[in-house]
Amino acid sequence: MNELISLILALVLLTILISIVMRISYKEEEKIRVQHNIFGYMFMIYLIIALAEVVGFPSISEWRRLSGLNEAIFNPNINLIPFNDGFDISGILNIIFFMPFGFLLPTLWKKYRSFLNTLSYGIIFSFIIEIGQLFTKNRATDINDLIMNTLGTIIGWIIFNSLRKVFKKLTRKTVVDTKDFESKIIKLEPYLYVFIAIISVFII
């Protein structure tokens, strides 16, 4: 139930953001196509599922539950040794679940058609998740997760570039070059998506 509420909240906030961005784009006479926004909603749905269902990002409701049981909110279960316990199915799942991140970033924003930009954002997003898991009961902050998440981002980026020429017309319609805009809101759009997703999961 909490996951559904988080998703609804995120989509409402995203709709507000898109409305603001579209209004600014008209004023600056730079067109943002509807395909960008459609894929934007897909990206947000993915982010909420990833944070709420897959990685178990902390939430206020979870903290209330732990407090009611007189259990600690801060639970540092940390592994900093890569593949100390070998390689298991969770590593493969982390790769799979982060592939859409590496795929959708360059689909939506031109700056992430650069490998290094996508790689950097993938590492940052994964690092945020691992830090968040310090404040969960049954999750571990694991260097293996950081590595596998980053690998998933890389594979997603490679898949995008493999399909880019096949769907050339579509990728032209979905992408926004933030450098074409003066508005800071549009320039920050890739980060606002992740911010909205994190807030929507955390406050529920």
Q: Mean pLDDT, nearest integer?
A: 91
- Helix proportion of residues, in percent? 55-70%
What is the global morphology?
globular
End-to-end Cα distance: 10 Å
Our Rg estimate from Cα atoms comes to 18 Å
Largest sheet: 2 strands, parallel
Strand order of the largest sheet: 1-2
Describe the structure.
The chain has a two-stranded parallel sheet with strand order 1-2. It is built from 9 helices and 2 strands; from the N terminus they run H-H-H-E-H-H-E-H-H-H-H. Helix 2 (34-54) runs parallel beside helix 9 and helix 4 packs across helix 6 (143-163). By secondary structure, it is mainly α. The N and C termini lie close together (10 Å). The chain has one domain (2-202). The mean pLDDT is 91. It has helices at 2-27, 34-54, 60-68, 89-108, 115-132, 143-163, 168-174, 184-187, 189-202; strands spanning 78-79, 141-142.
